[in-house]
Amino acid sequence: MLVLHYTGMRTGAEAIARLRDPAAKVSSHYVVEEDGAVFRLVPEARRAFHAGISHWRGHSGLNARSIGIEIVNPGHEWGYRDFPALQMAAVCDLCLDILARHPIPARNVVAHSDVAPDRKEDPGELFDWEGLARNGVGVWPGRDPAPADADAVLPLLREIGYRDDLPLPVLVTAFQRHWLPGRADGIADAPTRARLAAVAAACRA
Fold first, then answer.
1. In what order do the strands lie in the sheet with 67-71?
2. Of 49, 44, 45, which Cα lies nearest the Cα of 62?
3. Chain centroid to CA 23: how far?
4. Per-residue model confidence as pLDDT tens digits over 17-63
């Protein structure tokens, strides 16, 4: 798996210092600064402690099976903002390099908020998942079909990869952050249900 995060700290230097501090007990394989600079902190063959309590497609404890990238952004707590073009280009290149070395399916390129929807919201609703997918990183659906029925929402979320033992609005919010840019209200309305059906279909492809 490949798990993308934002740092959620005031500066990249603060984030790197924390990720290198043994007392913090957090780490990631890479950090990507806003100017596109890439720092490798942990070799890909070694476990980094970036996902925490996490679940995706039937697997838990994802630190043991994933590569983590921290993307410098102050996050929702310190002034969440757009990710600069240079930074996104560097993230894309880094992801493509990683995917060339590891057999990671597109459906397993995910957000921290996907794998820990009750705890995390990064990299958030401003992150350009669609742009990454256009360049071969992750899943982005084609045209939305008719909306799924309301009773199909949880089964489709489960099929995509989400855990199913959390309140539905929590899961829908995480889904929206990834696949409905700008939305994060947890409401499974018709546009959300249509996009849900489209993403599930894309993950099957």
1. 38-40, 30-32, 67-71, 2-6, 109-111
2. 49
3. 26
4. 999 999 999 999 999 999 999 999 999 999 999 999 999 999 999 99
Task: Name the amino acid, one letter, at 184.
Answer: A
Q: Which of 33, 34, 44, 70 is catalytic?
A: 70
Topology given in CATH for the domain delimited by 1-139: Lysozyme-like (3.40.80)
Comparing CA positions, the residue from 52, 58, 53 lying closest to residue 161 is: 58
Domain ranges for the chain, please list them. Answer: 1-139, 141-205
Tokens representing 141?
A: 């659906």
Q: pTM value?
A: 0.97
Is 70 catalytic? The answer is yes
DSSP state of 135: T
The one-letter amino acid at 41: L
